Amino acid sequence: MSRAYSTDLRERVLDAVAAGSSARASAARFGIGVATAVRWVRRWRETGERGARRQGYPKRSILDPHEGYLLALIEDEVDVTLDEMRERLRAERGIEVARVTIWRFFDRRRITFKKSPGTQRNRTARTSVPRGKPGSRASPISTLSG
Question: N or C: the chain end with fewer CB closer than 10 Å?
Answer without folding.
Answer: C
